[in-house]
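## Example record

The block below lists the input lines for one assembly entry, exactly as stored, with component labels intact.
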Amino acid sequence: MSVLKSLAASFSAIALLATPALVAAQLEARNVILIIGDGMDDQQITIARNYLAGARGRLSLDQMPLRGVSQVLTVSEHGTPVYVADSANSATALATGQVTSRGRIATSAGEDKPITSIIEIAEAAGLKTGLVSTASVTDATPAAFVAHINARFCENPEAMKDVTFSGIRVGDCSHHLKAAGGLGSISEQIAVSGVDVVLGGGLTHFEVPAENSSDTVIQVAEANGFHVVTTAGDMASAPKDKKLLGLFSPNTLPVRWQGENGRTAEKPEPSWANHITQYIGSVKMPDPMVCEPNPDYAGTPSLKQMTDVALDRLSNDRGFFLMIESASIDKQSHERKPCGSIGELAQLNEAVDSALAYAKLFPNTLIIVTADHGQAAQLIPEESLFAAFGVPVFTRGRLARIKTPEGAIMGVNYATNDFIMEEHTGVNVPLFSNAVGVGLVPNMLVQPQIFEITRDYLGL
Amino acid sequence: MSVLKSLAASFSAIALLATPALVAAQLEARNVILIIGDGMDDQQITIARNYLAGARGRLSLDQMPLRGVSQVLTVSEHGTPVYVADSANSATALATGQVTSRGRIATSAGEDKPITSIIEIAEAAGLKTGLVSTASVTDATPAAFVAHINARFCENPEAMKDVTFSGIRVGDCSHHLKAAGGLGSISEQIAVSGVDVVLGGGLTHFEVPAENSSDTVIQVAEANGFHVVTTAGDMASAPKDKKLLGLFSPNTLPVRWQGENGRTAEKPEPSWANHITQYIGSVKMPDPMVCEPNPDYAGTPSLKQMTDVALDRLSNDRGFFLMIESASIDKQSHERKPCGSIGELAQLNEAVDSALAYAKLFPNTLIIVTADHGQAAQLIPEESLFAAFGVPVFTRGRLARIKTPEGAIMGVNYATNDFIMEEHTGVNVPLFSNAVGVGLVPNMLVQPQIFEITRDYLGL
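Predicted structure tokens for the full assembly:
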């Protein structure tokens, strides 16, 4: 009985399910854990590896038996190829197997029709389901697994008409209002969903009244059987007989790490003479910096904590599908914050450890780890390849010079634009799987195949 | 006898080796073909795939049974980690299994001692060896497999003291002069080497007199048993009883493709108002362009042609080691020429086809395909993710907007610096192998392991 004792000690769900027959069924059940590093391309992984494990080190990711790449696919509203995705269309591909246009949440390009997601298929077949993210649970990646709407910005009932960002209109979802016969905003769709565990940020999107209602979206969720928590402690002690909605910050969860004194990548400052011609004068490069804990992170549940709670609650004799996202690898890269991205990649790596530990106990658990799209950050030389020329050579973007624990300096460049946020890139992204995936997951695929592999493995 | 007939038809070396016993030995012999895409990171592969095969397409590379990544390692002269390599130190790692400092050709960091290369080990064991490159054969990547010197720029006897580039001193190799007890310049070391086939560019480095000699380096090579050719036709008809040195252009071979009318990536041009603040005014983006044949390429042997000649000459009953480099994926990226890089990646892909065809006939042939380091090019959105904001959003680097055969536009950004050449990046690089490599080549390794795997597979 030592295996079962170990199971029981690790996962309290087992202890609750007392009979040996049920435990045996749980050991047989097929589960899929899909872990998404938002923006986690090979640059991000290499930067994080160098910092966390050293240039010769290995992340848990690096030790997974299957490694390959996933080609990201996007189309315009008219079906023409688009070479760079956003998180909404790429999450739609992962969640539904359909290629769509940027900004769309599980709706089709052109036609704007809902596309059924793996969560909906799994639920219908009696499997348990879960969504865990360090973003708002209404953000593009988790949203595409549970909601259907034309624009990712329509996260709550008050953000459905003429949605603005920094005062500029970025879209409109009026025709998806419930009054127009639609499914309503993303938070409302989550509130009425059958997802068993939803953990992340985004409280603000649930505190507002539901469309044409005096109830808040939280109250709608509670009426639909969700137990709602807002702290890590309450998450851990939540009753097991209800669905769980954990909302641990107003929007995106605070990230674990930041640059020294909150510093981001900065523009090198050329001297006056260098402005005349680039081959004279000098340049002041940003000072090197360490990464340090982000004080705002205190009290935030880690991605691993949320993962462990989700696995504990989802483990059952019929199987489950769980999506786990480390969202701010991407968000911190948009904001040119390499330490933030490194810390969130460390969080993802810990969630991978939890998933691998679970799969060791429950061997029919397929783990797939991937990214949704590439990001701007580039690991560039701390000393230019052309330093011998003796002229100022520097990026016109923004540079962070990070002191690594192994005693060197790593240059991280952000130079896709000069806007308040960097662009994504269209590079094919990393793909990993545990031993269960060997033979099932090809070493190169297009993103929609991840949906197909998941569906097939779960027998759906 | 149909297999042997097919072999004979494909590889004239077989026809020359008439006896069944020798043919059988040749079928058993262990060979390694190492194909290096210089600067061929996942961005370069994705950009090339989108152009050559479409976003949903596959290159031959993409269909190889093993896919993983190689972590590039570099150190300073004092042994501290350096996170971005150059081609000299990374080729040294591949050729010798030792991590060294930038610019070094198979010599140790700090101590400046020669490090034995796989070519030297293979030769000593009676295997045949070959080097094929679209660069000068004296360029860093091929050089590190056959020569030993402290600085990659010391390519010929006249470039050993106070080497300059654009009038600026970039290094010195005086202490490696033969007069100082050294091995001399890179071209001289190739001329006296035992490599059976050396094909590429670099004639200029062989036409000068050898150190303290009235003979040119070509004459030294001829005296050492090389048959020297300078055209594709002479390469094909070269006698089989001598070593072959093919030098098909003064330096780097002309590349296959160029941008429309020779265009490179270009700087977006913001309006006058946008110079005041980035949130007003407008920007003129570079015009879209197609890729077109480079007229200078006419008459140049393709990488595939050189590969086929090398395979034909090296095939023998004891086994061989062949390094094939597509060098200008990198060189064209340094110069912000995405069409050039795409064409050279197509050349690499064709060389992979030749290697796979050879391995189909001679099953003990291990093929490893990898890159030496990352490059600057990034696939960025043709329409900014932030286009809805209605303000000019554009790179401060250089952008090419390439019209792809599938009817879309692909944005390629170069923004690591503003110098005449872009930087490399430190990303981990792709790694591929054929079926022989499955089980031998891990899906993540550090670059020196490629040397070890090669040595072990060849039983050296």
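DSSP finds 15 helices and 21 strands in chain A. Chain A has a mean pLDDT of 95.
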